Automatic annotation (TrEMBL):
Belongs to the ABC transporter superfamily. PROSITE patterns: ABC_TRANSPORTER_2. Residues 18-258 form the ABC transporter domain. The lineage of its organism: Bacteria, Pseudomonadati, Pseudomonadota, Gammaproteobacteria, Lysobacterales. Keywords: ATP-binding, Nucleotide-binding, Transport. This is ABC transporter ATP-binding protein. It comes from Lysobacter koreensis. SMART domains: AAA.
Length: 456
């Protein structure tokens, strides 16, 4: 879909909440400080500055309930556009109309007064967003619980770390009943557990509100957003369905990296000879593991005190990654065979136990997972009180981009359609990956063989 088509399709839809027409922002650039002074003296009679358009000719229409991703290189105009939508920056030309309450997390602590305490800033910030003191009184406990910064809340903000400022700012924003949320995902980097909490909140918010999400992470935009807008040097390069726009953006990034030496391939000719697939040992594995391509993954051990939920007639007592011999691992190398073990106890009969897991990245995207349902299908054994069980999932550890990952585990009683969650832990294990080089995709599947050869 072209930019014009994207804007036209969106504009035709009912329930428009944001409409921007021909938006532009021009800054005056003075090559020397003295030029600014001279400009003041000369007024409009002479020009001592250069014009720089940070944004120009942007049309945009966002419907209620839509999630729009804004992508683009550094300096492409993303913040400029979003500040206009948030109402903190006036456009030089064009018109922006926004319905309802907008809460934005664009610049860290921008709405906070450093001399006031966290608590005072909560009231101040919420008031700016239109909440009365009584409204905040009713929500303050929830705001503080979400931010989770403890006694610091009664200290001046200037004594906070940037992570604490982020937690508080996000928490206020999450509790003001905003119609539109604007988030720069780069700000949410840092504390991985809090990022998970934020992402869970954003997924829930998406169901009822309008979300504008700035991200450098193309996978996150594809996964979270309905539509995307790609800005490049202040102008829109593509606008429309998220996956299509992200695809074009990536194509351009890769093409630029390869100095434009890229062509699009045609579909394979029918009947052309194909390489036969046979399971082969990947001889590169030893080489990869001995080089800087090696992907080390630290396993942060299971903490039995970590919060979970469920009926709790059965619960997990331990979760670990082990080698084939059952030895718990504190480090794994991407590509190695591992076993995910979940130990369970119950104090009641669990008629049909099912144990499942998935691996999530820091944005909460589910990368892969599985469960015991099909393995036990037709041969279900009730779990008896006082007789512990253990679920084992054997797989090859995929290579993981640098960052934190989480293993979510669920235990249920029932079948695939109809079951009751017994115990669910969002972050049962944390995997901390360190990876210097990255090939492609969300995860790197260990290849059993890669070949390039002449077909005889
Ligand atoms: N006050 C200003 N005066 C002059 N130029 C500015 C000003 N604010 C922003 N710019 C310029 O406008 C351009 C767009 O900036 P903007 O912050 O919107 O980009 P961005 O896409 O959000 O970048 P990033 O991803 O690095 O946050 C940049 O070239 C920036 O240097």
């Amino acid at each position: 879909m072209s930019y014009e088509e994207g804007a036209a399709v969106a504009a035709g839809a009912a329930d428009v909440i944001i409409r921007g027409q021909s938006l532009g922002k021009c800054y005056h650039i003075y090559d020397r400080p003295s030029h600014r002074l001279l400009q003041g003296l000369w007024g409009g009679k002479r020009r001592f500055y250069r014009e720089f358009w940070a944004l120009r000719g942007v049309d945009l229409t966002v419907r209620r309930g839509e999630t729009l991703g804004i992508i683009g290189r550094n300096g492409s105009g993303k913040s400029t556009l979003l500040q206009m939508i948030a109402g903190t920056l006036a456009p030089t030309e064009g018109v922006i109309q926004v319905e309802g309450r907008v809460a934005a997390l664009l610049e860290l602590g921008s709405g906070f007064n450093p001399e006031f305490t966290g608590r005072e800033n909560v009231y101040l910030n919420a008031a700016i967003l239109g909440l009365s003191t009584a409204d905040v009184d009713r929500r303050i406990e929830r705001i503080l619980a979400f931010a989770d910064i403890g006694a610091f809340i009664d200290q001046p903000i200037r004594s906070y770390s940037s992570g604490m400022v982020m937690r508080l700012a996000f928490s206020v924003m999450a509790h003001v009943d905003a119609d539109v949320l604007i988030i720069d995902e780069a700000l949410a980097v840092g504390d991985a557990f809090f990022t998970q909490k934020c992402m869970r909140f954003l997924r829930e918010f998406k169901e009822r509100g309008t979300l504008l999400f700035v991200s450098h992470d193309d996978a996150a935009v594809s996964a979270l957003c309905d539509s995307a807008l790609w800005l490049d040097d202040g102008v829109v390069r593509a606008y429309g369905e998220a996956k299509g726009v992200v695809h074009k953006y990536l194509e351009s990034v890769i093409s630029a990296r390869q100095d434009g030496a890229m062509r699009t391939t045609e579909a394979e000719t029918p009947g052309a000879p194909r390489t036969r697939q046979r399971p082969l040992y990947d001889a590169r594995r030893d080489w990869i593991n001995a080089s800087n391509l090696r992907n080390d993954v630290e396993v942060i051990p299971f903490d039995p005190a970590v919060p979970g939920f469920g009926e709790l007639r059965a619960r997990m007592t331990d979760v670990s990654l082990t080698d084939a011999a059952g030895n718990p691992l504190s480090w794994v190398v991407g590509g190695e065979s591992v076993v995910l073990e979940v130990s369970i106890v119950s104090d009641d009969v669990i008629r049909r136990p099912i144990v499942g897991f998935y691996l999530k990245d820091r944005l909460g995207q589910q990368l892969f997972g599985d469960n015991t349902y099909l393995t036990t299908f037709g041969n279900e054994r009730p779990m008896q009180p006082g007789r512990p069980m253990r679920a084992r999932f054997e797989f090859e550890m995929p290579r993981l981009r640098s960052g934190d990952y989480f293993v979510t585990i669920g235990i249920a009683d029932g079948d695939k359609e109809d079951h009751v969650i017994q115990h669910w832990i969002h972050e049962a294990l944390t995997l901390r990956s360190d990876c210097v080089e990255w090939a492609a995709g969300l995860i790197g599947l260990p290849m059993t063989g890669i070949h390039l050869e002449e077909v005889k």
